[in-house]
Amino acid sequence: MKLFTGIPGVLLLLALACSPKNEEVQTSHIETEKADSVADSIATTVKDGTATARPHETPALPLPQPVLQLLASRYPGWKEPVLLDIAKENASGKAQGPLTVQADFNGDTLQDIALQIQHGQDVVIMALLQDSGSWQLHELKKDILFNDRGTYKSPYHLYLTQTGEQLYNYDSNKNFTTEHDAVSVSISNSTITYLYEGNKFKAYETE
């Protein structure tokens, strides 16, 4: 996998090296009211059938309407992050991503969502668990966006790790098998996989 070069890349790798391994993710649980219908995309449809997008949203991120309401409440002014070129290259060929992953993270057969957004000058990576029409938000990671000549960009890409995949835990130096679908978050040559265990997401360094 390609590495960042130059001073900015060194700073990123130094910051990554100082991050905790196998840590329990701090989560917050927020539920929205049940919606009668779920939107197929971020765009909303008015009575004449014309699709309109809200200012802080982008059609590149298809999300259910209750999730949009939750994001607008928790992260006002959020938007889709721009990825660094290296993040785009490293995401090539991966399952789903690089901005969103849809899968069953807790084994209840409902489709959950993981995504990254830009909020101000930060990138926020989160998982949203579906529960009979309402959603719970778990913030997995928050970091400062990379300033690429005046444009703030995310160095991360997301991808799906499926149920039953065998991974190597660098903290315990042991192999393990995922019991549920999981979201993996990768930056440069390092990957953290977030598994839902005991009513919370736990981070494992897997690459």
The ordered string of helix (H) and strand (E) elements is: HEEHHEEEEEEEEEEEE
How would a textbook summarize the main sheet?
Answer: 4 strands, antiparallel
> Helical residue percent?
10-25%
Mean pLDDT: 78
Tell me the fraction of residues in β-strands, as a range. Answer: 35-45%
Spans of at least 5 consecutive residues with low confidence: 1-24, 28-59
Shape: globular
Count of the separate structural domains: 1
Summed up, the helix count is 3
Quaternary status: single chain
Radius of gyration, CA atoms, in whole angstroms: 17 Å
Structure class:
mainly beta
Distance between the termini: 11 Å
The strand line-up of the biggest sheet is 3-4-5-6
Care to count the β-strands? Answer: 14
Structure described in brief:
By secondary structure, the chain is mainly beta. The chain is 14% helix and 37% strand.
Molecular structure report:
It is globular and about 40 Å long. It has 207 residues and is mostly beta strands. The longest helix is centred in the N-terminal third of the chain and has 12 residues. The strands form 5 sheets. The protein has a 4-stranded antiparallel sheet, with helices on one face. Strands 9-12-13-14 form a 4-stranded antiparallel sheet, with helices on one face. The protein has a two-stranded antiparallel ribbon with strand order 1-2. 14% of the residues lie in helices and 37% in strands. It has one domain. The N terminus is likely disordered. It starts with 5 loop residues before the first helix and ends with a strand. The chain is built from 3 helices and 14 strands.
